[in-house]
Amino acid sequence: MTKTTNFRGLATVRYHAEELEAARAWYTEVLGVEPYFERPDYVEFRLGDHSQELGISRTPSAPAGVVAYWHVDDVDAVMARLLELGAAPHEPLRDYGPFRAGAVRDPFGNVLGVMFNPHFLDVLAGAGRD
Question: Looking at the domain assignment, is residue 80 inside a domain?
Fold first, then answer.
């Protein structure tokens, strides 16, 4: 089944941090990779199976009501590590059928969601493709 839509996939998630250097260092530690793109007020990481982009801008902003959830294979371990590295609890880990998700606030006030999502793994494996 082919799905037609103007929305083709997640391009970039952008977070905000007035202390950009501290945010760069924290996310480098969390993600285990260096940014692939930098300019004075912005850094960007590529991650995951689809090289999706996580950008951090020096622009101050308050978190809004949207949470982007990043698929992780061991959501409990990743959540524990985020909290150990200074993130604050935002949404406790919860089970939604085969899904498990939760969110933290990073040290800069952004909401970072993590989720185990079997549908992500199905798409990655090519299930449901023509």
Answer: yes
Residue 39 falls within a domain, yes or no?
yes
Cα–Cα distance between 39 and 2 in angstroms, integer? 39
Number of domains in the chain: 1
Virtual torsion, Cα 36, 18, 29, 42, nearest 10 deg: 0
> For residue 61, what are the domain limits?
12-125
Per-residue pLDDT tens, the chain, 130 aa: give them: 556 666 667 778 999 999 999 999 999 999 999 999 999 999 999 998 889 999 999 987 766 667 899 999 999 999 999 999 999 999 999 998 899 999 999 999 999 999 999 988 888 888 655 4
Give the CATH number of the domain where residue 55 resides. 3.10.180.10
Buried b (16+ CB within 10 A) or exposed e, 48-79: beeebbbebbbeeeebeeebbbbbbeebeebb
What is the widest separation between alpha-carbon atoms in the chain? 46
Q: State the pTM of this model.
A: 0.82
